[in-house]
Amino acid sequence: MKHFLLIANWKSNPQSLENACMLARALEREVKKIRGVEIVIAPPYPFLVPVRRELKKAKLGAQDSFWTGGPYTGDISPEQLATLGVKYVIIGHSERRIYHGETDSLINKKMKAVLEAGMSSILCVGERERIGRDIPAIVGEQIRGALREIPPRLYRNICIAYEPVWAISTTPGAVPDTPENSFRASMYIRRVLADMAGKKNSGSVRILYGGSVSQMNIGSFVRDGGVGGALVGSASLNRKTFGEIIRIASRAR
Ligand code: PEP
Which is a Pfam family this sequence falls into (predicted)? Predict the structure, then answer.
């Protein structure tokens, strides 16, 4: 059985290098104490190297990547990230779709480039509003768009994070999704993948949940959410809270 995967998405936090290194050191101490959980810390770009120096057991993640290197001012290529020791790259986060207008076709280019550079990619998908009980078709469209023409042999390096935007803690009025719904979402995502690339390839993709994950709900997502991991935003910025999330996830396995 694969380890439960916990990704700490720090977004554009903290604001100083000193605080980033302190937080990384503290999280690494928590990670060392537990088993059965794989931890990835995704700091902002400028802190990747100093944070990597603080990590032994936890792996290094990036929050985005451009799809190539060259004359693209301000962009970071997958090859550059790979040389820094990045193992996982978040692609298509809702904040990038909303604030930077990222389209499924751009996300598809990024996915291909990250996988070809030998890293794992964490594709974020999710609807903006909840309408009824069914998982909306937009989730399937985002997956089909992002994975277009990606060879199924690379599926084992793909994680898909179901992150309904209404559940992300920074969305006004956010509420975490229920484990029952994340279970339904994970079944839905598997069906979409199986239609695209067959059941075997679909089974090699790790499905995660993200949206207001905390020490209060992580246990139920591990046990009943039908997911192999979680993407954690705000709660990963607090050493004690994230430490507790890690311990609960490890015990609930
Ligand atoms: C996120 O933005 O990816 C996220 C999951 O944030 P939070 O845990 O704060 O809802």
Answer: TIM
Query: Dihedral sign, CA of 60, 66, 235, 43?
Result: positive
What is d(CA 87, CA 97) in angstroms, rounded to the nearest whole number? Answer: 22
Domain extents in the chain: 4-252
Question: pLDDT at position 194, please?
Answer: 97
Does pLDDT of 171 surpass 80? yes
Mutate to test the pocket of ligand 1, among 13, 94, 171, 234 (most ligand atoms within 8 A of CB): 234
The reported pLDDT for the residue numbered 130 is 85
What spacing in Å lies between the alpha carbon of 53 and ligand 1's midpoint? 25
CATH number 3.20.20.70 is the correct assignment for the domain at 4-252:
yes
Catalytic choice (93, 95, 102, 127): 93
Question: Would residue 244 show up in a list of annotated catalytic residues for this protein?
Answer: no
